[in-house]
Design a protein that fits this description.
2 helices; two-stranded antiparallel sheet
């Protein structure tokens, strides 16, 4: 079964706390960021601001 943007939008409306992507007709639920990725993002932002 191949999903469409409309299917993704409906699912996103039902579950706004989930992060989802539509890739080649499949809906992929993305897990939340962990501590390490947040630390890397913070450091990158700091370097860009300097």
């Amino acid at each position: 079964m191949s999903f469409t943007i409309t299917d993704l939008e409906e699912l996103q409306t039902e579950h706004p706390e989930w992060q989802m992507e539509l890739v080649e007709g499949k809906i992929i639920v993305i897990g939340p960021s962990d501590y390490e990725s947040e630390e890397i993002g913070t450091r990158l932002s700091t370097f860009l601001n300097i």
